[in-house]
Amino acid sequence: MIPAVLVLATLAFRALGALGVRRFASWPVSAAHGMAVMLLFTASAHFVPASVTVMPNHADLARMVPPFLPFADALVYVTGVLEFLGAAGLVLTATRWPASIGLAALFVTLLPANIYAATGDVAFANGEPATPLWQRIPEQLLYLAVALWIARAADSTPTRELFTRREKESVPS
């Protein structure tokens, strides 16, 4: 369901662009906003109480954290906050580049939890199993690819230009 949110939101924003909304005139910007919408859905689950069973909740996500990682509850809250911040960063042109790079790193670091949940038969409170590995890996790769595509398209943002200028100034001639 979550990849569908990304795709449908991206298409909706791009349709607005086709209708004349200049902000959504490009696919990468529409994808950045689509990913932001998706992240609002996924991040909200990190804070949902265990009594809610119609969607993944905090307790479900804490069970997905591999046992070798300490403080599973805290890690779930931290990743939820990072997803909210990433969503906000994607929407703001000036922060789109660092947000997309940070999200790409986050998607890579979340992969072990997704692998553990799929291979460890972790079940959610509503009895549903975690997303199977054959589905989860391509989803994570999709999110990673979209985040990197957004980053590449955001190379001309003010934040990226600031980093590029500093790199050029620090190189001896």
Please provide a written account of the structure.
- Helix 2 crosses helix 6.
- The longest helix is centred in the middle third of the chain and has 24 residues, at 96-119.
- The model has no long low-confidence stretch (mean pLDDT 89).
- 70% of the residues lie in helices and 0% in strands.
- It has helices at 2-18, 27-45, 58-64, 72-91, 96-119, 133-153, 158-170.
Low-confidence runs? none
Task: Report on the biggest sheet.
Answer: none
Summarize the amount of helix as a percent range.
55-70%
Count the strands? 0
Separate helix tally:
7
Shape: globular
Multimerization state: single chain
Task: Indicate the proportion of strand residues.
Answer: under 5%
Distance separating the two termini? 52 Å
| Structural class computed from helices and strand pairing | mainly alpha
Order of helices and strands: HHHHHHH
Mean pLDDT: 89
Radius of gyration of CA atoms, rounded to a whole number: 18 Å
